[in-house]
Specification:
This protein is of the alpha/beta class and 414 residues long. It contains 18 helices and 15 strands. The protein is globular, with a radius of gyration of 24 Å.
Length: 414
């Protein structure tokens, strides 16, 4: 389909669209007026990770094409948990933990979106962050059941894949979690009433929740609202985006050093370079087409550009430049860079097994020993075959490597 609006044209050309509700009507609306649109994020940790990045970029594209992004923090729904494709119930957080996570996560969005200056109302396309606890915490149970609950069919809710997955595995689905989809539908209607929100976006696993919100707004208010979902982002080898041997790829530098974030993008599979550039950078499409067509050394240079641009957007240009220089010194000159992940050694010596665990290259001592036995451990470029080796750490940092792509520094503590 050929779109008339910059919004849908951009989303389609960069690979964000999986499903749309009434594409023709949404396209016409986006072509003639500012469309406020939202995505919800549950504050279950102090940072979001790369798995949330496509949704953050979706809000960025919304703003870039002249519309208003609404970041909805689930301070209310976060107290319950979303059952969508989860194997078990999510740990419930307290009020203080949720508030701290919301404040921490906002710093991420301020790097991707333009918000109004503190204390100012802002313009029609300035991003806003709201918390659904503002209205969900004030709901009265009986009126909510009477006014909202009547519009939901339990039979239909049981048919959603997110629910069926848990039930088919005979895993517990609590009444708390079962209410989540009703509350999310209510969020959409509440944002429509409060802020004129006309669009909800999310991952493909949120399709049922989005459709619920559209139906609720139509039945209770007679308002036409729309939904867009993105495809599940997997790597070329079929793996889940953002999953690595060392764990989640966090967007906050508090949880993941700049170099590790840069290196995650640098390690992209050749087949994913163009797709990830379209999704996760602002590079023009014609430049991306040229870069993804490269082969050999050329595609490696393209990966560095992807790493530089993705890191600069999330961590700042200085962080990207520092990480790129660290990589150049580490891989091209055999030196060490200050942006590498590091571990402090207080007594001047550490075993190779403990070093690999401390740097996050192995999750356990047993895994570290297997890494050594397989020939994957090096100290200052020299292969280590003895898992009892003690590494002396004096004035100069010691470079420890796990495989060809993971490098870190051991630094003498005070």
């Amino acid at each position: 389909m050929t779109y008339q609006s910059d919004l849908l044209s951009t989303l389609a050309s960069r690979g964000y669209i999986h499903q749309l509700t009434d594409a023709t009507a949404l396209d016409a609306l986006a072509a003639k007026q500012v469309v406020p649109g939202y995505i919800g994020f549950d504050p279950t940790a102090p940072s979001l990770h790369v798995g949330s990045l496509v949704q953050i970029m979706l809000l960025r594209r919304l703003q870039q094409t002249g519309h208003k992004p609404i970041v909805l923090m689930g301070g209310g729904t976060g107290k319950i948990g979303d059952p969508s494709f989860k194997d078990e119930a999510r740990k419930l957080l307290g009020e203080d933990g949720i508030k701290a996570n919301v404040a921490s996560i906002k710093r991420i969005f301020e790097r991707f979106l333009t918000f109004a200056p503190e204390g100012e109302t802002g313009g029609p396309t300035d991003a806003v962050m709201v918390d659904n606890a503002d209205w969900l915490d004030a709901l009265e149970y009986i009126p909510f059941l009477r006014d909202v609950g009547q519009h939901f069919s339990v039979n239909r809710m049981l048919s959603f894949d997110s629910v069926k997955l848990r039930l088919d595995r005979e895993q517990s689905l609590s009444f708390l979690e079962f209410n989540y989809m009703i509350l999310q539908a209510y969020d959409f209607m509440e944002l429509s009433r409060r802020m004129g929100c006309r669009l909800q976006m999310g991952g493909s696993d949120q399709w049922g929740n989005i459709v619920n919100g559209i139906e609720l707004s139509r039945r209770m208010d007679g308002t036409e609202v729309f939904g867009v979902t993105t495809p599940l982002i997997t790597t070329a080898d079929g793996g889940k985006m953002g999953k690595t041997m060392s764990g989640a790829v966090w967007l906050h530098e508090d949880q993941l050093p700049h170099f590790d974030y840069w290196q995650f993008w640098r390690n992209t599979d050749d087949r994913d370079v163009g797709r990830f550039m379209r999704l996760f950078t602002d590079l023009p499409l014609d430049q991306i087409a040229e870069l993804e067509a490269r082969e050999g050394a050329g595609i490696n240079e393209a990966k560095k550009i992807l790493a530089n641009e993705a890191t600069a957007m999330c961590r700042g240009r200085d962080a990207a430049d520092q990480a790129a220089e660290t990589a150049r010194r580490t891989f091209e000159e055999g030196g060490s860079g200050a942006a590498l992940p590091s571990a402090t050694v207080s007594d001047g010596s550490i075993g190779i097994v403990d070093a690999l665990v401390a740097l996050g290259f192995a999750k356990s001592k047993g895994e570290a020993r297997r890494l050594v036995a397989g020939g994957g451990a090096r100290v200052n470029g020299e292969r280590i075959d003895d898992d009892t080796l003690a590494i002396a750490v004096t004035g100069e940092p010691v470079r420890v490597s796990a495989g060809k792509k993971n490098h870190g520094l051991l630094i003498l503590g005070q």
